[in-house]
């Protein structure tokens, strides 16, 4: 996959360090044709796991912001590879222009021929600036699934996953930083959408199937039903 160029393409011209005022006043994708649902929760809360079920039953295209960043990080000649690597290891949020551009490109590549699409965006937005910028310039979301999980449960899951994941951030030191970032930077995003009554809050302890039942029930209350 070619490395991203933030200053070219058919999407809005995005400068490496723009202020929010440079955001387009209208979104690239029409929310009447494109459905966006975010899935958020702390590191290890089960976003990826639940996403697989949602893809199977609801026909979502799953876009993981973390996966897109890791892919870009590993892309030969990427201008942002080292930067992404450093941010991920430190559990910090990569500058939004990079993540938003990666998501926008992935959405465009996965639109149906009639311009419609149904996207489950996993692990994004993680910071208020990303949320505002994406909603204004790419596509407003329908709702956010929030997987509510205690830190001790997430920590245990991540350390267990770390035995085989090969992820540079599934270790004690990075996990502590990721939790801090989640509480200080990402929770305000969930709170913001909750104020707009756009959050499906699901307790994320217990079995995967049990959590999924909570997700399905919550989505039904927002008028989102399985497609298959
Ligand atoms: N309900 C559950 N019970 C037990 N283990 C679970 C549950 N849900 C997920 N896991 C396991 O916990 C680990 C983390 O899950 P997952 O990768 O889905 O989390 P995540 O929120 O996507 O994490 P990250 O934000 O770090 O990418 C995985 O090893 C997964 O198999
Ligand atoms: O919007 C985002 C999403 C993720 N990141 C960085 O990636 C890692 C890993 O994300 P996962 O969702 O756990 O796979 C995260 O800790 C951030 O460093 C980001 O910067 N912006």
UniProtKB/TrEMBL annotation:
Family: Belongs to the adenylate kinase family. UMP-CMP kinase subfamily.
LID: region residues: 160-170
Subcellular location: Cytoplasm; Nucleus
Keyword match Nucleus: yes
Protein name per its UniProtKB record: Uridylate kinase
E.C. designation(s): 2.7.4.14
Organism: Capronia coronata CBS 617.96
GO cellular component: cytoplasm; nucleus
């Amino acid at each position: 996959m070619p490395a991203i160029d933030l200053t070219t393409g058919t999407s809005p011209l995005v400068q490496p360090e723009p202020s929010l005022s440079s955001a387009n006043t209208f979104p690239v994708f029409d929310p009447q044709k494109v459905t966006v649902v975010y899935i958020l929760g702390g590191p290890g809360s089960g976003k990826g796991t639940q996403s697989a079920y949602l893809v199977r039953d609801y026909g979502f295209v799953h876009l993981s912001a973390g996966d897109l960043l890791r892919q870009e990080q590993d892309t030969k000649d990427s201008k942002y590879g080292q930067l992404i690597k450093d941010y991920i290891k430190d559990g910090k949020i990569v500058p939004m222009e990079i993540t938003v551009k990666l998501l926008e490109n992935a959405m465009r590549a996965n639109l149906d021929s009639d311009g419609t699409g149904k996207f489950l965006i996993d692990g994004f937005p993680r910071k208020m600036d990303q949320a505002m910028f994406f909603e204004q310039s790419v596509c407003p979301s329908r709702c956010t699934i929030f997987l509510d999980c205690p830190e001790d449960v997430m920590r245990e899951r991540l350390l267990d996953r770390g035995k085989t994941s090969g992820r540079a951030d599934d270790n004690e030191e990075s996990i502590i930083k990721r939790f801090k970032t989640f509480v200080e930077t990402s929770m305000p995003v969930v709170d913001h959408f909750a104020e707009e009554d756009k959050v499906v809050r699901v307790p994320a302890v217990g079995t995967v199937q049990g959590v999924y039942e909570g997700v399905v029930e919550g989505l039904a209350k927002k008028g989102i039903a399985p497609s298959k």
